[in-house]
């Protein structure tokens, strides 16, 4: 595909889409029903529908029977850990292999023209972003993912929580599954702002931001504390009336759904004239500029709070002005607290 029909490339080879990033037409006033109807297919396909189906697949073919899960035992816990690890490896590696190892698209639709493997850095284990990111995902991310999954399934098997059946409550559970991405977005925005506070950023979130030029494995390259916070939304299903499939969907949306936002390409080519949009641009800009786009755009939190960056020159100017005011406040504070040496 000719990516220059959809964007521009600068002298460094970095690609930028022609259209500024947009947030979903939800939670806007006045309401825009036609825009919502036009946008709805993007809400379902391909990612949310895929992760909902994967949650059903886990429930049908991976999760043990209720009687087994009533007791915590190494057998079924290690089984879930193994399946999750294999699934994560295959899903993440599929993107990594095509886009970053074989480089089948070259730099078409790639925001940052450089490939992480070409720029070793001491901030990563073994000076390799790809190896560092993969090891952090598999050694910390998957075990914490599995631990929370085991806890919720054990609670379900022991009737801890308000669990509903699809046969008795199909309407509410369907609505709940529609709300799962909104729950994820809200939780993600709140914990993301939290871990951008100076202390937590230094000791926790900076691990994730080492990947300024993110690639698929960067998705789950986090400090264990961030992994715990990131996967925590599954615990909401112990409180709200829910079903194990909805809880698994919540987990899969976080675990598998992180990849599109970190893939580093605006579109993933499937053929000569066919490509799937990654919806990665908003989060790519967060990795690039750090203090913008704390959410992914499903809910316009960043627009409401003045931290949205759509990639345009106007947004760049607003961001620089916000930085200037921040520096001015810090300098004024330092001046006010500095000892008076005039005497």
How would you describe this structure in keywords?
single chain; Fatty_acid_hydroxylase; membrane; 343 residues; transmembrane; globular; 4 strands; 13 helices; two-stranded antiparallel sheet
Walk me through what this model shows:
By secondary structure, this protein is mainly alpha-helical. It has one domain (48-288). 55% of the residues lie in helices and 3% in strands. It has 13 helices and four strands. The strands form two sheets. The chain has a two-stranded antiparallel sheet. A hairpin with a 5-residue loop joins strand 1 and strand 2 (15-17).
- Distance linking N and C termini: 70 Å
Main beta sheet: strand number and arrangement?
Answer: 2 strands, antiparallel
Task: Characterize the quaternary organization of these chains.
Answer: single chain
What is the SS-derived class? mainly alpha
Total helical elements: 13
Relative strand content: under 5%
Helical content class: 55-70%
Shape: globular
Total strands: 4
Domain count, please report it: 1
Rg, Å, rounded: 22 Å
Unreliable sequence segments: none
Lateral strand order in the biggest sheet? 1-2
| H and E string | EEHHHHHHHHHHEEHHH
Mean pLDDT: 96
Give a concise summary.
With 343 residues, this protein is mainly α.
Secondary-structure blueprint of this entry?
Blueprint: E1 7-9, E2 15-17, H1 33-44, H2 47-61, H3 66-69, H4 74-101, H5 129-157, H6 170-194, H7 198-209, H8 224-231, H9 244-255, H10 258-262, E3 267-269, E4 275-277, H11 281-289, H12 301-305, H13 313-337
């Amino acid at each position: 595909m000719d990516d220059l029909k959809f964007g521009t490339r600068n002298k460094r080879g970095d690609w930028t889409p022609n259209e500024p990033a947009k947030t979903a037409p939800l939670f806007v006033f006045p309401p825009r029903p036609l825009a919502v109807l036009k946008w709805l297919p993007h809400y379902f396909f391909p990612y949310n529908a895929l992760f909902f189906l994967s949650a059903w697949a886990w429930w049908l073919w991976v999760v043990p029977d209720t009687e087994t899960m009533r007791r915590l035992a190494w057998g079924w816990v290690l089984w879930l850990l193994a399946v999750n690890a294999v699934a994560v490896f295959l899903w993440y590696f599929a993107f990594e292999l095509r886009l970053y190892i074989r480089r089948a698209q070259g730099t078409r639709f790639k925001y940052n023209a450089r490939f992480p493997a070409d720029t070793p850095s001491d901030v990563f284990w073994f000076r390799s972003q790809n190896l560092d990111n993969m090891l952090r995902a598999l050694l910390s991310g998957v075990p914490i993912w599995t631990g929370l999954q085991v806890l919720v399934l054990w609670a379900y098997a022991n009737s801890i929580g308000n669990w509903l059946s699809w046969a008795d409550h199909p309407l509410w559970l369907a609505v709940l599954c529609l709300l799962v991405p909104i729950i994820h977005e809200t939780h993600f925005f709140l914990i993301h702002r939290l871990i951008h506070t100076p202390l937590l950023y230094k000791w926790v979130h900076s691990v994730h931001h080492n990947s300024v030029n993110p690639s698929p494995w960067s998705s789950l390259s986090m400090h264990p504390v961030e992994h715990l916070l990131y996967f925590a939304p599954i615990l909401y299903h112990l409180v709200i009336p829910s079903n194990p499939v909805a809880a698994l969907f919540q987990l899969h949306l976080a675990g598998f759904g992180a990849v599109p936002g970190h893939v580093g390409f605006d579109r993933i080519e499937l053929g000569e004239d066919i490509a799937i949009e990654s919806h990665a641009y908003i989060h790519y800009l967060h990795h690039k500029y750090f203090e913008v786009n704390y959410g992914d755009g499903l809910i316009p939190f960043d627009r409401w709070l003045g931290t949205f960056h759509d990639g345009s020159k106007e947004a760049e100017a607003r961001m620089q002005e916000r930085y200037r005011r921040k520096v001015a406040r810090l300098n004024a504070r330092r001046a006010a607290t500095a000892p008076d040496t005039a005497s």
